[in-house]
Amino acid sequence: MQKISKKHPCRVNTIQTDCVITPFFERKKGVLVSGCEVESTVWDTGATNTIISSAVIDALGLKPVRQTQIEGVGGCMDSSVYKINIYVDGCLEFTGIEALSGDIGDYDVIIGMDIITLGDFVITNKDDQTWFAFRYPSSEHIEF
């Protein structure tokens, strides 16, 4: 099981982690693939899909695997789809993720529900401290 926990000394309204993005590859012993380190990664339950910025796409020289149409706040638009691997804070590994390209403001990566629904995602705010935890794969139901 893979897992990550982050504890903030105050209440925060954005869950952020670091990650490394690589082009998709199937892991083989002795094969090294360079990646793009991203400090501005946000977890977004309002995003259906994972999204990567043009800066990440350009840094890795990614080529789209296909085109698709997406619907956002501003309406429908075309988007390229890129197959990538994501390594979050050295704790989580997601391979073969189909990420969309997008103009995502201050962030280079948005981790969307396509990844979040693979595991168990929890946020608590007891004593005005935000704690975030994610485990993958999902292992049991959480009930309050």
From TrEMBL:
GO MF, one annotated term: aspartic-type endopeptidase activity
UniProt cross-references to InterPro entries, sorted A to Z: Peptidase_A2_cat, Peptidase_aspartic_dom_sf
GO biological process, one term: proteolysis
Domain Peptidase A2: 39-75
PROSITE patterns: ASP_PROT_RETROV (PS50175)
Classification via Pfam families: gag-asp_proteas
Keywords recorded for this protein, A-Z: Hydrolase, Protease
Name this polypeptide is given: Retroviral-like aspartic protease family protein
Organism (species): Segatella copri
Lineage: Bacteria, Pseudomonadati, Bacteroidota, Bacteroidia, Bacteroidales
